[in-house]
From TrEMBL:
Cofactor field: pyridoxal 5'-phosphate
Catalytic activity, reaction form: (sulfur carrier)-H + L-cysteine = (sulfur carrier)-SH + L-alanine
Aminotransferase class V domain segment(s): 3-268
Name of the protein this chain belongs to: Cysteine desulfurase DndA
Matching Pfam families: Aminotran_5
GO-annotated molecular function: cysteine desulfurase activity
Family annotation (InterPro entries): Aminotrans_V_dom (IPR000192), PyrdxlP-dep_Trfase (IPR015424), PyrdxlP-dep_Trfase_major (IPR015421), PyrdxlP-dep_Trfase_small (IPR015422)
Family to which the UniProt record says this protein belongs: Belongs to the class-V pyridoxal-phosphate-dependent aminotransferase family. NifS/IscS subfamily.
């Protein structure tokens, strides 16, 4: 059995790929070129034993929108494509057809204040086995009593997000363009990790030579919440896997800031962020020169 996955994917995918490898399943990283899966190279990696490809729709750290449909077309119908669409609902359609996915996963906490619930959308003809057995809930795939209240809130948030998606995408795009320009004008030696296909509400910066964990703390004191990378990997000393996979630049991967915003964020808040970031970077740069 052979499985491929995106090396920049969320740790929940990457770590489970490692578990599969421990069980004797062959795993390989999908090839990346110019912030896209290199489908020409992928075609050469596929084997008769290949059964699954797993990747995200939108990179949670960088906002890169991956070419999932190209990947599915390259794979063909006999190999299943799993797409983690957790970061997609604010700006993308959330259907299997849109992503070319056989299996699609969603996370309630990424669309609102709904934690403890998610969704796996899959064709009923796909053979799947439960991790444990019980009362037979969820087609027998996930035993245990469901939470109707959480499911109702999740569905409501997805509906609200879907209705506001087009307007938010346009507004977030304009906000991102101004935010990027203002940062470039006020802060030297800053790099943006992005692609031609980009979620407009996620901005990933690299500030080589600066301690971005310290910058996060300074910004927190100013009342602004940002991160260096995925919350699940904040203790990693290796830097951002996502930025390293996209750029191949270790210095950039070790000095990242991830900024994102939602439908309730106003332009004034981003302007305040730029000012606070410029002050914080100037303070760190001055400290580094001592």
């Amino acid at each position: 059995m052979h499985v491929l996955y995106l090396p920049s994917a969320h740790t929940s995918i990457v770590e489970n790929m490692k578990l599969l490898h421990e069980e004797g399943i062959a795993i390989e990283e999908l090839p990346i070129r110019d912030a896209r899966v290199d489908c020409e190279a992928l075609a050469k990696m596929l084997r008769k034993e290949t059964v699954l490809v797993s990747m995200d729709a939108v990179c949670g750290e960088t906002g890169v929108i991956w070419n999932t449909r190209d990947v599915k077309q390259t794979m063909g119908a006999d190999i299943f494509l799993h797409v983690d669409a957790s970061q997609a609902p604010l700006t993308e359609k959330i259907t299997r057809a849109h992503f070319g996915a056989d299996l699609l996963t969603l996370d309630g906490s990424k669309v609102g204040d709904v934690r403890g619930i998610g969704a796996l959308i899959a064709r009923s003809t796909i053979p799947m086995s439960p991790l444990y057995r019980g009362g037979g809930q969820e087609r027998g795939l996930r035993a245990g009593s469901e939470s109707p209240e959480l499911a109702q809130k999740f569905a409501a948030m997805l509906s609200v997000t879907t209705q506001g998606r087009v307007a938010f995408r346009a507004r977030a795009g304009a906000m991102r363009e101004k935010l990027t320009a203002d940062i470039a004008a006020m802060i030297p030696d800053v790099h943006v990790t992005e692609s031609d296909a980009q979620a407009p509400h996620i901005l990933n910066l690299s500030l080589p030579g600066r301690d971005t964990d310290y910058l996060v703390a300074l910004l927190d004191e100013a009342g602004l919440a940002v991160s260096t990378r995925s919350a699940c990997e904040t203790d990693s000393v290796a830097g951002s896997r996502a930025v390293l996979a996209l750029t191949g630049d270790r210095a950039r991967a070790l000095a990242t800031l991830r900024i994102s915003w939602g439908p309730q964020t106003r332009a004034a808040s981003l302007a305040r962020f730029v000012s606070a970031l410029a002050r914080s970077v100037a303070f760190v740069d001055k400290s580094n020169r001592r």
